[in-house]
Amino acid sequence: xxxxxxxxxxxxxxxxxxxxxxxxxxxxxxxxxxxxxxxxxxxxxxxxxxxxxxxxxxxxxxxxxxxxxxxxxxxxxxxxxxxxxxxxxxxxxxxxxxxxxxxx
Length: 104
What we know:
This protein has one domain (28-101): CATH 2.40.50.140. A 5-stranded mixed β-barrel has the order 1-2-3-5-4. Helix content is 7%, strand content 42%. The termini are far apart. The protein is built from 1 helix and 5 strands. 12% of the residues are buried. It is extended. It is mostly beta strands.
Protein backbone atom coordinates (compact mmCIF):
# COMPACT_ATOMS: atom_id res chain seq x y z
CA UNK A 1 0.00 0.00 0.00
CA UNK A 2 2.85 2.40 0.78
CA UNK A 3 4.18 1.79 -2.71
CA UNK A 4 0.86 2.86 -4.28
CA UNK A 5 0.76 6.02 -2.15
CA UNK A 6 4.30 6.91 -3.20
CA UNK A 7 3.29 6.61 -6.85
CA UNK A 8 0.20 8.75 -6.35
CA UNK A 9 2.17 11.61 -4.73
CA UNK A 10 0.05 14.46 -3.38
CA UNK A 11 -3.38 12.77 -2.94
CA UNK A 12 -2.06 10.81 0.04
CA UNK A 13 -1.22 14.07 1.82
CA UNK A 14 2.53 14.05 1.23
CA UNK A 15 4.09 17.30 0.00
CA UNK A 16 4.95 17.38 -3.72
CA UNK A 17 8.53 16.79 -4.79
CA UNK A 18 10.42 19.11 -7.13
CA UNK A 19 9.44 16.96 -10.13
CA UNK A 20 5.76 17.18 -9.18
CA UNK A 21 5.84 20.96 -8.52
CA UNK A 22 3.35 22.78 -10.68
CA UNK A 23 5.14 24.96 -13.22
CA UNK A 24 3.69 28.41 -13.93
CA UNK A 25 4.15 29.01 -17.64
CA UNK A 26 2.29 32.31 -17.70
CA UNK A 27 4.10 35.29 -19.18
CA UNK A 28 5.46 38.00 -16.89
CA UNK A 29 6.16 41.52 -18.17
CA UNK A 30 7.56 44.70 -16.64
CA UNK A 31 6.33 48.14 -17.62
CA UNK A 32 5.31 51.64 -16.59
CA UNK A 33 1.84 52.64 -15.41
CA UNK A 34 0.43 55.28 -17.77
CA UNK A 35 -3.12 55.50 -16.38
CA UNK A 36 -4.81 54.50 -13.13
CA UNK A 37 -8.06 56.49 -13.13
CA UNK A 38 -10.26 53.40 -13.37
CA UNK A 39 -11.30 51.39 -10.31
CA UNK A 40 -9.15 48.26 -9.86
CA UNK A 41 -7.63 48.74 -13.33
CA UNK A 42 -4.37 50.25 -14.52
CA UNK A 43 -2.96 50.68 -18.01
CA UNK A 44 0.67 49.60 -18.27
CA UNK A 45 2.95 50.46 -21.20
CA UNK A 46 5.39 47.64 -21.94
CA UNK A 47 8.30 48.59 -24.20
CA UNK A 48 9.69 45.78 -26.32
CA UNK A 49 12.94 46.12 -28.23
CA UNK A 50 12.77 44.20 -31.51
CA UNK A 51 15.34 43.84 -34.26
CA UNK A 52 13.99 45.00 -37.63
CA UNK A 53 13.79 42.09 -40.08
CA UNK A 54 15.16 43.94 -43.10
CA UNK A 55 17.33 46.75 -41.75
CA UNK A 56 18.61 44.97 -38.59
CA UNK A 57 18.11 48.13 -36.54
CA UNK A 58 16.66 47.90 -33.03
CA UNK A 59 13.09 49.24 -32.96
CA UNK A 60 10.99 49.98 -29.87
CA UNK A 61 7.42 48.72 -29.82
CA UNK A 62 5.07 49.83 -27.06
CA UNK A 63 2.06 47.75 -26.08
CA UNK A 64 -0.60 48.90 -23.61
CA UNK A 65 -1.85 46.20 -21.25
CA UNK A 66 -4.96 46.51 -19.11
CA UNK A 67 -4.01 45.21 -15.66
CA UNK A 68 -6.21 44.10 -12.75
CA UNK A 69 -5.07 46.05 -9.67
CA UNK A 70 -7.19 44.72 -6.77
CA UNK A 71 -6.04 47.26 -4.14
CA UNK A 72 -5.54 50.26 -6.44
CA UNK A 73 -1.89 50.41 -5.35
CA UNK A 74 -0.31 51.33 -8.71
CA UNK A 75 0.17 55.03 -9.39
CA UNK A 76 0.99 56.75 -12.65
CA UNK A 77 4.71 56.49 -13.39
CA UNK A 78 5.35 53.39 -11.25
CA UNK A 79 7.40 50.50 -12.64
CA UNK A 80 5.34 47.34 -12.15
CA UNK A 81 5.54 43.62 -12.84
CA UNK A 82 2.43 42.03 -14.37
CA UNK A 83 1.51 38.41 -15.07
CA UNK A 84 -0.80 36.87 -17.63
CA UNK A 85 -4.04 35.53 -16.17
CA UNK A 86 -7.58 34.51 -17.01
CA UNK A 87 -9.79 37.20 -18.58
CA UNK A 88 -11.14 39.61 -15.96
CA UNK A 89 -13.13 41.63 -18.48
CA UNK A 90 -13.28 42.43 -22.19
CA UNK A 91 -9.77 43.92 -22.21
CA UNK A 92 -8.14 42.85 -18.91
CA UNK A 93 -5.97 39.74 -19.26
CA UNK A 94 -3.14 40.70 -16.88
CA UNK A 95 -2.87 41.10 -13.09
CA UNK A 96 -0.52 43.19 -10.99
CA UNK A 97 2.18 41.08 -9.32
CA UNK A 98 4.22 43.79 -7.60
CA UNK A 99 5.26 47.42 -7.74
CA UNK A 100 8.98 47.30 -8.59
CA UNK A 101 9.70 51.02 -8.22
CA UNK A 102 7.54 53.93 -7.11
CA UNK A 103 7.33 57.09 -9.23
CA UNK A 104 9.26 60.10 -7.98
